[in-house]
Each structure stands twice: as C-alpha cells, then as structure tokens.
Amino acid sequence: MTRRGERGRSAEVDSSAPALRLDGLRKVFGERIAVTGLDLTIEPGSFFGLVGPNGAGKTTALSMAVGLLRPDAGTSHVFGADVWQQAGRARELLGVLPDGLAMPEHLTGRELLTYLGRLRRLDRTTAALRTDELLDVMDLMDAQRTPIVDYSTGMRKKIGLATALLHAPKLLVLDEPFEAVDPVSAAGLKHILRRFVAGGGSVLLSSHVMALVEELCDTVAVMAGGDVVAAGPLHLVKGHGTLEDAFVELVGGTRAEGEVLPWLVS
Amino acid sequence: MVGVLIRMKLTIMRRGMTDSRASWMLVGAFAGLCPASCTIWLATREAGHPGALVDLLALVLAMWTFGWMLGPVWSGEPVLGPESFALVPLRRRVLALGLLGAALVGIPTGVALIAFGALVVFAARLGVAPVMVAVPVVVLQVLFVVVLSQLTGRALRAVSGSRLGAAVAGLCTAAMLVASQSGWIVFVALDEVLVSGLSPRVSWVIRALPSGWGLAAIDAAGRADWGVVAVDLAGLCVLIVVLFTLWSRSLGPRRRARSGAVRGSRPAMRPGFRGDEATAAVVSREWRAWWRDPLRVQTLVAAPAFAIMSCALPLAFDSTALLPFAGALTAVMGAVTSANPYGQDGTALWLTLLVPGAARRDVRGRALAWMALFGPSSIVLMLGGGVLNDRAGVWPWAVAATLGALAGGVGLMLLVGVEQLVPGPDPRRRKSSPLDHGNVTGQAFVVLIGIGAVTCPGFGVMWVGERVGSASTVGVGAVLCVLVACLSALYCGRRARRTLIARGPELLHLMRTGSNSDTSRAGATSPVGERVGQRHPMVWMCAVLGLIACVPQALVPTIMKINGTIAPVWFLALHLPNNWQWLVIGFMYGLGIMLLGLSGILYRGRLRSF
C-alpha cells in the first residue's frame, strides 16, 4: 500500500522502457503542418536537448509529448505508459515546464506550491518541506508572498520549474527553462538539473541557446520544419565544430557576414 | 497621423473580423439604432407644458452622455491604445489627435450622430436659424461624448487594476443593468414629464449639464437670443478642448504601479471545508482568487449590488414586493456573471491537466467555492428582504427561488463554462484591468434561461397551489423547485467534469490560440462543440425577444390586470380596448414561448451539427 506522502514517487517505472518515446507524432494547424511524424527516443538517465529555429515545431512537439495537445497521429509513452491511454500513470512520472502558459495568477509562489502539493496528495509535512527547499534553491524566498501575476518572466520560469519538481518526477520536460533567468539563478538551476540526471532522472529541454545545450546535454536533436533533421549523442551531432555551426548548417541558415544594413554604421 | 491611425484601426478590425464578430456588430448597431430612433421620435412629440420637451430632450441627451461615459466598462480595451505607441517619438497632443480620429471611426459614433440628430429635428420645429445652429451643435456634442468617453475610459482603466477599482466597475455595471432592465419605469417618468414638465430645480440642473448646452443654444436660437447661443457654443468648444487636453496628458506611460496587489495577505473567513484534501486545495485556491482577481471582485460586487438596486427600485412606489427576492437575484446574477470560469483562468488549465485526477476535483472545488461566496450573501439578503416585506405568504416563494437559483446556477455556470468556453486575454496578460474579457453574453443567456428552466416546474406547482388556496401544494412546489435544481446541479457538474477530462487539451488549445479552428480537419471532432453565443446571435436575439414577449408584454400586464392597477406605459396589450387585452396577452405568451423554443432548437441544432 502506498503512503499518502509518497504518492508523488509511487508510480511504477518500467526500467526497460525509454524515459520518453515519441512515435510518428503529427500535428496540422489549418493549412500549416507544425509537426510531421516525429520519432524520438530519450533513454533513462539522459540529458536531452531539443534545438531548432523559431517555428520549427518544438513547443508543439513537447506539448503533444506530455499530453497538453492532442496529436493528429502518433503516440507518446513515458516509461512505457501511454500519455493518453494511461494518463494518470504517465503524469505521475512527468514534471513539465511549458512555455508561455498562465498559472493561478493570484496565488503567491508559496501558495501555488502548497496547492499543488495538496492536489498531488503529498502529506502536509512533505509538501511544506519541499516548498521551502524549492523556494530557497530557486531564490524565490523574498517573493514567496508576492502573487505570481506580479512575477518577472525569469521568476515565472523558476516557480514553473519548482512546480515541475515538486512531486519528484522521473522525467522532466522543460520548454525554454532558462529564458530570461538571471545568470546566478541559471547556475543554480543547472546544478539542480545535473544532480537530477545524476540521480537517475531524465531531462528533455528545448532551447535556442546552443552554448547552454552544449554545456548541459549529452544527447541532442535538431528540429526544422516540424521534423527532426539530426539526433544523437552531442559529439556526433556537432562533429568537429560547435553545435551552433552544425545547427546553422542543418537548418539551412546563413550567417550574416560582410556589408549588412550599411546605414546602421554612423 | 490621423489618417495613418484610422487605417491602422480599420486594418486591425478587418483582420480580427470573424463571422461572429460581424454578427455581433450588426446586433450592436441594431441595439444602438433603436434608442437613437426613439430619441428622434421624442423630438417630434408635442408637450403639454411649455419647456417640457426641452427638459425631456435634455434628460435623454444626459442619459446618452452617461452611457458614453460608462461605455468603456463593457467595451474593454480599445482597438488602438496609447501604449502601442509608447516608443514612437510623437508629441502627446499629436498622438491624441490621431487616436481621437481613430476613435471617431466606428459604429458607436454613427449611432451617436443619429441620436444627437434629434437636435436638428427639434430645431426644425423652431425655424431655419435654429437648424443652422443645430448642425454644428450635433458635431460638437458628438465630439464631446467621444472625448469624454476616452477620458473616462482612461480613468477607469487606471483604477480598475485594483480591487477598489474593480468594485467601482462592478457597481457601475450593476447600476447600468438595473437602468436597462427597469427601462419601463423611465417610460412612466417620461410620460409624466411630457404632461407636467420637470420641477424647476431638476430642469435647471438637467439643462445646465454640458449634455444640454447644445440644446439650450438651439432653444435660444429659436428665441433669437444670440448672446446665449454664442455663450453655449463657446462653452461647449472650450469644454471639448479642456477634456482633450486632459486626455492627451493622460496618454503617457502609467506612472502608478498596479494597485491593490495582494502581498501574501490571507483573505479573511476562508471556508472551513473538511473533506477530500485535493478538493479542499481547489476550494482554497478559488477562494483566494475570488478575493484577489479584479475581474472576479467585479462579479462579487455586481451581483448583490444589482439585486439590491433592482429589488429596492419598487420602494419608489412604496412597494416592498421584490425585497424577499433579492437573494434569488443575487444567486442568478452571481451565476450569470461567473459563467466563464475556465475562460477567465485561461491557460492555467495546464496545471489541472497534468495532475492525475485534478480535473474532477477542479469542477467540484469551484462549485463549493462559488457556493461559499454566493450562498451566504443570497440567503442573508433573502432573510433581510423577507423580514422587511413582512408577508408570510412570500416566504415559500423566496426560499424556493433563492435555493433553486443557487443550486441551478452553480451547475449551469460550470457546465456552460466548459461546454461553451470563451477565451479571453490570458490572465498573465490581464494584470492591469478587469475590463478585459471575452464576450460572454451568450454564456450569460444560457445560464439565465437554464436557471429559469430548472426552477419553473416547481414554480408552476406553487402557482397552482396559490390559485387553489392549498398551502401544502405550495410547499410541495417549493420542495420540487429546490430538488430539481439540485438534481440539475449534480447532472451539470458531472457532465462538466467529463467534458473537462475528455477535452481538456482542446480547451487549453482554444485558450492558447483564441480559436479552435486550427484543429479542424477531416474526421476530427470539435473540441468544445460550437460556441453558439459567439457565432449565432440569432439564438440570443430569439431568446431576448422571447423573454420580452413573455415577461414585460405578457406576464406584467397579466399581473396588472389581476391587481387592477393598470399603467399602460409600453405594454402593448394595455393600450388596446379592454376586450382585446387578454387576447393580445395570450398572443404575447404564445409568441414568447415560440421564440424561446426556436432559440432552444437553434441552440441544440448548432451543437448537434458539430
């Protein structure tokens, strides 16, 4: 029998299954194909980076992967649990930080974490302890009594990450987690994520910042035009150059060189 | 600059134009043209008292001006706001001119021109010279109301981010609703004014208001009193310039931080809910949101304020008959104005979707929190009103209406909120104003009609009991009323929960993108069914006309004829010969029921077609 306080850790993990497996995920918005049959596998213990230019379909793919957007076709499995058919089990194993979504805006940071702890049926002591620790490591103690509606973008990211970590998930799916986060907080977050992976957890994060992905991730996938154009261990994807060079080459972009916008030169 | 901003406004409006917006725009234009035409008709009336017509026109023009002042409460953010141009190096006066030009382009200005055109009609009765004066007067009066509306809109937006501002907005909303639904009392007043005129003091005040200056100028032109004409016109011009200057000065960046932010203070009197821990967490979240979110505070104030004002209005005729129903009206208005709970919370739904089992508890928790807020206030108002009314026979009606409205309202509010979710500005972007919200008129009507439908069987039995003089039948009717409403609440709650679980991601997508059309594809099921209220104003027009036919044109004349106190006012049947009256009343009942039925068929038809 599961103790109430342990509910967040109770879901059985199929250790032989990938942390996340996406098979043929596809999404069409009107005339525009956002994601075209995406296949991706993230192994347990992996720190996986998903990169791609604006409009590549990263957010759509991640939303479908975690069950926040219903795909037109394809499946998503979290440690073997189908995100749509076995939603409860999958959601216990998942911690998610989406990009650009609201929260209960009129709760304070502390109230939000307490509320989610109760909703996830953590016992009061455990919830209070974790709330304190999370507010502390996210450097949000000073803002713990401020409603979220008054948080800055970086603070919203941090409280969002705290909500993703609160129930001790096995897989973290983070959409642009470092966007607008100050360097000091970012260093703290990186440390938390590295420890999470070292402890057996898996992370899938999307980012525009190649240096960050290069610094943190052991595996990367490059998305363009709604599909993965390259995926694998970091050293193989980036080759002999930097990840940024490989990225620009893969997505078919060109670097601005020579005389551009000459009227800007005063 | 003016031309650029006008073209920009028209482009934005054209890009944002959907079938539903176009339909609502037409309905809005029609709704505005009706009173505008009435104003012109009024200018053609004969008055029994010298000066009475001028008094009356001054009164109506003051009402138009008041309406323009409060217009921003409902119209939300303007299409073009000064914030969009904060980084453009424009002088404020130039920007203000441009924005004013853009504000003048639109249906409301056209409606105002027609309404104020009544001044030309009035002037035509006085001669050629007054008409010559009336033409610039109309332009000046329209310019005056538009500038005044911009200024009051700016002021309202400045204070509406705070809870106090939201409460003021709630009171204004309640007052305007009372004024609109008790319009027939205004008709009684107008009838009186035409016969005997206003009292000298009121007449002086009404004419002295800026809304009456143009009229005074025309009146003076009729008497060839050119000095007064010049003073009135010059005064109007100066006033417009002053208002414009004030407004242009207010267009800078907002200096004040958002006021009323709750820095972790715990609202008093949290409901002591004992039960499922997760549900209690939702209740607690909702309770805090109700006291902190300006949009919700507005609802919290508007519902009881509307009920108290409406029920106190008959006190003017020494009648306390409506007082015991203040509680029921609070519950009805509370449900009607809360009919978009998920739309208001926007994309925060993702948290509910990602926690196992949270959707079920979310529906229940919201229902309990709403009950904890509106239940006690409704019951207290019912008890207070009942005591003041002091008629024993009214208690079963008051109790049945209040409890029935509470139970029926809470279920319908949640069901409609899920089934016909209207996306508005996401709450994280709505931090400064409770005036920003989607168009929830359709949802409000569904809840209103739904409450009527679930309580009417019980009321029917009670009415029969009253007619046959059986107290026990009245009691059975009251119990039936509450019972049916409770069963409806259980059914609606269960269905809302199932829909939320089954279609949560689609609802989230709808709120994320503001449209569900993106997901439409061959073979796909619509995420939330048809948002009837947005796309088919025909449904709501039928419902409104049906209610008008049933209630003011049939039920009210019935009561008047039974009581023997007949005031014909705008009740068609009572203007006819006695032997025709019951026939017309019966026809109005039939027409009303037919229109309401048609509305229901259209509504169901739209749902089924998806």
Automatic annotation (TrEMBL), chain A:
Keyword Transit peptide: no
Segments forming domain ABC transporter: 20-250
GO MF terms held by the record: ATP binding; ATP hydrolysis activity
Keywords for the protein's UniProt record, in alphabetical order: ATP-binding, Nucleotide-binding, Transport
Family, similarity comment: Belongs to the ABC transporter superfamily.
Protein's UniProt name: ABC transporter ATP-binding protein
Automatic annotation (TrEMBL), chain B:
UniProt keyword annotations, A-Z: Membrane, Transmembrane, Transmembrane helix
Signal sequence range: none
Transmembrane region(s): 21-44, 56-74, 94-122, 128-152, 164-190, 226-248, 295-317, 323-343, 367-388, 394-418, 439-465, 471-493, 538-560, 580-603
Protein known as: Transporter
Organism: Embleya hyalina
